[in-house]
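Checklist before submission:
- one chain only
- standard amino acids only
- sequence pasted in full

Submission:
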Amino acid sequence: MSQDSQLAGHLIVECLVAQGVSHAFGVPGESYLAVLDGFHKYREQIRFVINRQEGGAAFMAEAAGKMTNRPGVCFVTRGPGATNASIGVHTAFQDSTPMVLFVGDVASDQRDREAFQEVEYNSFFGPSTKGMAKRVERIDDPNRIPEYVARAFATAMNGRPGPVVLVLPEDMLTKETSARPMPRVEAVEAWSDPGALRTLRELLLAAKKPFVIAGGGGWTPQSAQALQRFAENWKLPVGNAFRFQDTFDNHHPQYAGDVGIGINPKLAARVRDSDLVIAIGPRLGEMTTGGYTLLTPPKAKQKLVHIHASAEELNRVYQADLAINATMNAAARSLEVLTAPPEVPWADWTAAANADYLGNLVPQKLPGSIDMPAIVATLQKHLPTDALVTNGAGNFASWTHRFFKHHGLAKGHKTQLAPTSGAMGYGVPAGIAANIISGRIALTMAGDGDFLMNGQELATASQHGARSIVVLLNNGMYGTIRMHQEREYPKRVEGAGTQLANPDFIGLAKAYGYEGVRITRTEEFEPALLAALERGQGTLIEVVLDPEVITTRGTLSAIRDAALKR
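Returned file contents:
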């Protein structure tokens, strides 16, 4: 090997360093040994976090992308490794998160023979508007590695952020190359058209009941602060899109609540009754629109202003009255200087929206010895304002979604990591990644079914010095599906796939290197949390929850009784 050349696998890692990547996540495979050797070579500049399953690794990379607004990086081997990782790629696609998945592949001379673990990745990952990736490319020439990596980062960040897949033939990685990394890629800002901003102002001046829905990918503290100034200037009520509850400060007197699953019925009615909806960032998917009922496609009855970073998303599902192609940073900075009148006719409307939100924080009485709203209130009391709250998917997530109040990006930090894709098993690896990358407190809310989908990543946490806190709600079932079963097939749940026989979660946590605590009464939670916050290792707090307590608003019995009366 000449003095100016190195292995292609080493160049891959050097290109990541040039793009500012500090952590890569993955499960090792023989198909990319040369890259692993590159991580050894550049170990002072970049850290390879060894995961226990590729789905957990991909979720960690996706969480890194959410936190940094730059592509989270994941490495997996061919075939089973890539298919396991696909859940994280799909989440990055639906959540509009920048991410790059590197897949070690079969050697070039073995392609198209159904070689060991061979998969055709363009067909598997997309790309398409209904696929899992924005772009899928194969690097056959080691001299073009810098080009492909730079393009992958640009594609992942520009427009609607999302995942890119780069396929790495095993034999290509062991070739020599003298190519050098390309400079760090920055996202391109798309600015609002001045004419469109004038039209938006006219629509606002003609409105009586406007409503802002903010969310989606690409928000920064600066853009969130600019959004807040725009809302304050115009005295607008603001709701956050599904699982982007940290976009607008939940403590703000103009905050109206989260527009997602389990929406406050009063908030749902307010969105339907508004005469102007300004959607800044979300793509207005099924969860944010209440199954496409809050705004009815293809033409909502409300006037609709849709601002999105991708021109392809505008007018794709909803025909907007005004579509603006702009990144969140550019859009918010344009909106904050939009001249507002001294008085607006909807000040009472905005105040009422906030009052409805605050009223929704008052819980109803539910059975059992665990008071979940009180548990969340304890989290609110003791977690620092910059703590990251993570969750996967399940009814358990509704407790923090409804009752936890995020200060969020406007106060300088992203504080929520949750999958709009509805992927179970996300919260545990996301919390671990968050703690590894930022050093901040990461609190994961998990269900018993959700936890066991990626609970093995506690071993990853212990190996890499992470100390997340997992609050595991154990009700012995897949709660969301059980709720739907009781609604659709009451008294027909025995043997129908939702009841769980769980392990000893405390013993399991300790085996992975975490401390484990089980509580059965509300008053036991606060000392357990305080000890976890002080402890030098991760902690799992198992909360034994009455199976009857299935949602923040009702019980299984109530759902079953209502179904039987139909």
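Reviewer check: The chain has a mean pLDDT of 94.
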